[in-house]
Write a structure and sequence with these properties.
This protein is mainly α. 78% of the residues lie in helices and 0% in strands.
């Protein structure tokens, strides 16, 4: 399709969309969904995450009537909006990664080394048995076997993001359980 005709078609779809025509919204979704997913994938390097982000964007576009702000070319807006969402997600993930690593380092310093307290180390190992299998495995690979996230994720056949989620939940669970048991212990001076 020629660029001029495509732009005219988009303008017509946008006009129809502004009148509340859901079929125009569907047409825009069908026309741009795959291209936007591909664009998002190149930034995120995660196919499912790219699809989820684009679907969420289209839902918000409809629910919040973001299309009402558009005048003229829609293609550029769609690509820029998805790109900004991808960049924001990457920033958020980087922040969460730093927080998780800091939390993990603190946990390692405070709880894991037998040098601090063999009792706490044994307590961690004992409480780990209560974790679901994948969280146990994630924790062991990263914190006890000192594997990098990518190596551990590959060993478990999961994405790095899934590994991070398992670690975050495992650390939270362990921290809560160990705090509770330290409080419950009458002779705990730790």
């Amino acid at each position: 399709m020629e660029p001029v005709m495509e732009e005219q078609q988009d303008i017509l779809l946008l006009q129809q969309l502004n009148t509340g025509d859901k079929s125009a919204y569907d047409a825009i979704f069908l026309k741009y969904y795959r291209m936007l997913c591909t664009n998002a994938y190149f930034l995120l390097q995660d196919e499912q995450q790219a699809k989820d982000l684009v679907q969420q964007f289209f839902l918000e576009m409809w629910d919040k009537q973001l299309y009402r702000q558009l005048h003229g070319e829609i293609k550029g807006y769609l690509f820029r909006a998805v790109q900004h969402r991808c960049l924001n997600l990457l920033k958020k993930q980087a922040y969460q990664q730093r927080e998780l690593e800091a939390y993990g380092l603190q946990l390692e310093r405070d709880m894991i080394p037998e040098t601090r307290s063999p009792e706490i180390y044994q307590q961690v190992i004992h409480v780990m048995r209560e974790l679901p299998v994948q969280r146990q495995q994630a924790f062991r690979l990263v914190y006890l076997q000192q594997k990098k996230y990518q190596e551990a994720a590959d060993d478990m056949s999961i994405s790095v993001n899934s590994l991070k989620t398992h670690l975050k939940l495992a650390l939270k669970f362990l921290r809560e359980k160990i705090k509770i048991s330290e409080k419950d212990s009458p002779d705990s001076n730790i």
